[in-house]
Amino acid sequence: MSILTIILNILLPPLAVFLKHGVGTTLLISILLTILGWLPGVIHAFLVNN
């Protein structure tokens, strides 16, 4: 995992997921989790982008 990916995972989780996986259900889950709370979005981004 690059430094840029780590920074994006922390600051903008949906963007990091989008850059890795594109538009799909993973992105929608990431957006939903980020809206519900920033920390769940970050955790999901790290798990998906691992």
UniProtKB/TrEMBL annotation:
It comes from Costertonia aggregata. It is found in: Membrane. The keyword Endoplasmic reticulum does not apply. Belongs to the UPF0057 (PMP3) family. This is YqaE/Pmp3 family membrane protein. Signal peptide: none annotated. Its main location: membrane. It comes from the Bacteria. The keyword Cell division does not apply. PANTHER family: HYDROPHOBIC PROTEIN RCI2 LOW TEMPERATURE AND SALT RESPONSIVE PROTEIN LTI6 -RELATED, UPF0057 MEMBRANE PROTEIN ZK632.10-RELATED. One of its GO terms (cellular component) is membrane. InterPro entries: PMP3. Pfam families: Pmp3. Keywords: Membrane, Transmembrane, Transmembrane helix. The chain crosses the membrane at residues 26-48.
